[in-house]
Amino acid sequence: MQVNPLAFLDDELAALRERHLYRPLRVMSSAQGPIVSLDDRRVISLSSNDYLGLSHHPRMKRAAIEAVEQYGAGSGAVRTIAGTMTVHEALEADLAAFKHVEAVLTFQSGFACNTGVIPTITGETDLIVSDELNHASIIDGMRLSKAPRKVFKHADMASLREVLADATEHGRDGSGEPYRLILVVTDGVFSMDGDIAPLAEIVEVAEAFGAAVMVDDAHASGVLGEAGRGSVNHFGLDGRVAIQVGTLSKAVGVLGGYVAGSQALRDILIQRARPFLFSTSHPPSVAASCREAIRIMQEEPELHDRLWSNTRRFKAELGRLGFDIGHSETPITPVILGDSETTIRFSDRLFDEGVFATSVVFPTVALDRARIRTIVTAAHTDELLDRALEAFDRVGRELGVIAG
Ligand code: PMP
To answer: What is the pTM of this model?
Structure first.
């Protein structure tokens, strides 16, 4: 008799389905954008991270095509062997100037940045202090490090101060020996609630205890700060944050991540960061269209303005309809409905009404804080937002979420 050694996977899948936690993939047959073809339906999308609409911007496509013509489809090797092209170096120089830092190193994704940088710069003699709601890639980066870690309550400065006071008073393993490095790590924008980290306070508290700050700006890149320079620039903290991680996969519209900081940080990452050393570099077209995105962000400020006017309008209208939209300060607007079943039904009904907005349920968020997560972009027209709001109104009344 043949035994299937992976039979336990069927049981796990059945358990997920039973708890309504199984998530089938919806397949998109169009380009990304404010209207997409999903599972053979044309729907208004409120679910991409394409904040500025750059994924399909004509200048971005042209930059990619020209790079393919000039350099080919792939880079052919990891960067330390034969995969560093002029276009990779040029993108990093552009990003360093844009971010007002000494040097930048790009990685294959924002996720790879965090799993690359954290274990490279921390070890047994260091301490990592992390916001409790930090992104999965920061958590995985910490797991790969030999450094001990402590967690502070989300965006809570009293809690951060307490952790740092304890660490500096008692030292490594309570021995009184000081840590070589204490690294405070936070998301710049938290992707489930859309709130902005209180970075000015975090930096102040960290400086008081001699700790360094690392901010993961995935959802702030292209969104916050002058021309989308990120949360450090947004708070006027240029030069006071040791490590900024950004993504090239969301507002920048392509794929990748970067670590921005000192020249020494870049140099050590090139020598030691494992995703950099052991995984092939971006195709040249990716680097070329990322360069074009940095130019567009500075040359077409109307995209940034439109993102924020759409954001203000959408939030105001959802609030006026009577929905609980939490405390987001960014284009991420959660529509908090409470229990998972209503939320999943709400998302399905919106889809029937021609609007794609995904549900986020336990364990990603607390059991009673299930929500529809929406993101408006610069590419949404007034008419599309009106249609989306009408669908929210209809489904909200039908399911008794808002007064009918
Ligand atoms: N960090 C944060 C805070 C994120 O939200 C994300 C994307 N969900 C990432 C890192 C990963 O970025 P990328 O998609 O470029 O891997």
So the answer is: 0.96
